[in-house]
Fold this protein.
Amino acid sequence: MPILFLDLMNPNVTKVQRTAYDTTGWTEEDLRDGIVVDSIPEPENSGKLSMLHINKDTKEMWYEYEEVPKSEIEILRDENRDLKLALAESVEAQQQDKIENQLAIAELVETLTTKGVL
């Protein structure tokens, strides 16, 4: 039978810190703070990080789920993608500015030509 251990420093917490399946050779003192259960439910396969919790009095168990933290490589990939998008937007804005400048110059030349200045 599995034995669940909670955080000894915070007795009001329900989160299971560790689970022992084989207690061969353990002393009564080793087992003193454990909660013996018949079985442990399986977590949902949600792609999230599952944390087992237990009510010490009723031995009711449940899972709470958190998003899996991104790895350093995933973070760098996201930053790289964002930088590439920002660069592409900057280049596009520069191209638009260049076109607008060329149109303004062409307009100016046309105006000066029609007025006989050039």
Observations:
- The chain has two domains: 3-66, 70-118.
- Helices lie at 28-31, 72-114.
- The CA atoms of residues 92 and 98 lie 10 Å apart.
